[in-house]
What we know:
Blueprint: E1 3-7, E2 18-26, E3 29-32, H1 37-42, H2 47-53, E4 63-67, E5 76-84, H3 94-107, E6 113-117, H4 123-136, H5 145-149, E7 168-172, H6 179-203, H7 211-225, E8 228-232, H8 234-240, H9 243-249, E9 257-263, E10 271-282, H10 302-317, E11 322-332, E12 344-346, E13 352-354, H11 362-374, E14 380-385, H12 389-395, E15 400-404, H13 407-420, E16 424-426, E17 444-445, H14 453-462, E18 470-475, E19 481-482, E20 493-494, H15 499-510
Parallel strand pairs: 1-7, 2-5, 2-6, 6-7, 10-11, 10-14, 13-17, 14-18, 15-16
Antiparallel strand pairs: 2-3, 4-5, 8-9, 9-11, 12-13, 15-18, 19-20
Helix pairs in contact: 3-4, 4-6, 6-10, 7-10, 9-11, 10-15, 13-15
Amino acid sequence: MTALTLSTAAAPGLRADAIVIGVAKGADGPSVAPGAEAVDKAYDGRLAGVLETLGASGAEGEVTKLPAPAGFKAPVVVAVGLGAEPEKDAGFDAEALRRAAGAAARALAGAKKAAFALPLAEAADAGFVAEGVLLGAYSFDAYKESAKDGKDTKGARSKGNGKAPLAEAALLGGKPRDKAFKAAVERAAAVAEELNRARDLVNTPPNDLNPEAFAAVAQAAAKEHGIKVQVLDEKALVKGGYGGILGVGAGSASGPRLVKLSYTSSKAKKSLAFVGKGITYDSGGISLKPAGHNETMKCDMAGAAAVFAAVVAAARLGLEVNVTGWLALAENMPSGSATRPGDVLRMYSGKTVEVLNTDAEGRLVLADALWAASQEKPDAIIDVATLTGAMMLALGSRTYGIMANDDAFRSAVHEAAEESGEPAWPMPLPEHLRKGMDSPTADIANMGERMGGGLVAGLFLREFVGEGITWAHLDIAGPAFNEGGPFGYTPKGGTGTAVRTLVRVAELTAAGELG
């Protein structure tokens, strides 16, 4: 991962491959953002005009490169758009800083060192810039031959696209001796590193990441960070009566797993349970997905990846809250042993479910894990899942939906998401939709009305949350996997959505500000 340093050095004398500055979009054209005063001075105060001549406007994510002024040790100035110029005496918001830093870091792939002269009005801003740099520099090239060799055709170290990620970033204007600045950057590094680990898992091909392999990754990380781990294999799942997880995994040669990760703090006064859907590949099962809908289904374990990363991040940050992560892992495949439409599964809770569609499998594995989590009586449960295409139709590809059995908790999770830079939107759980899941054969069916399918899925999950326990459901089907081009600090492929929301909820809970 890109190395981060805080620096009080002046931009002209710093040895680097590039100096990154911010540009805002003003009413009369681009304006140079705070932090770049020394650079602007070297252009005799005409840097904004030069950038405008080159076509720069200051729009969010816009990157413009130009030769550095005479006397600078860095050969290039990289101007990155911050978006709209803030009101007088107001600073740039957190997400503007994250996205600008991310866009610049991605544009500087191949560079050994860059100096970021972006606005750092306070310690928190250093954390936002650091986070953007680390997330924007991300690259997944484990399966690229050039990355394996470490060389491209020109002899340079390669990361698949011929360029290694930015190796080092110096944050100018940072205060290396200031505890608040150091803490902000250290937090950003811990969260970003675990989020990038989640991205790696989502991007890993399903022939290399089955439930057993995912569980092994979790076990290794738990050992490294002092987290207690328990893995239930097929025999243990059968003995325990986890019919949902077993039913989904029945058609695969790779058996299912339920992984429990427990981080505990001696100073904790509250406990949280995070539950993640971990379908390492979703073919749809007997209700087979058609061509064009299954090529990216390695990402159907993104919820479990987010939960895993959040628990490890909480441990690394030493948060004063107990956090338990439940990873419900299975591969949904068709075969002679697969669950059929019409089958009835007896869940871990004892309830029976008529399976009307084997492609509505995520709710089945989550149901068992939610009930298991409920038995420990946490103060709150949050589940995370790439659950429904209906949520994508409702909110698009960049926003996830939040449902809950408590309106105040739903609002708190929404605020944590927005604060973390993860677009989300509160969604209802209309009671009239529950009737559509009535079954003449079982206690409940895994399908209901087609319209409002994302809400129906939320209502199904609510059935498996223990009485009196506060619960929220995050349907991240849209933003979990970016099939388009990269933007801001978001790469193509796995995004790590929900990691930062979960970490923020844990931080607020530890501080006594939530729940």
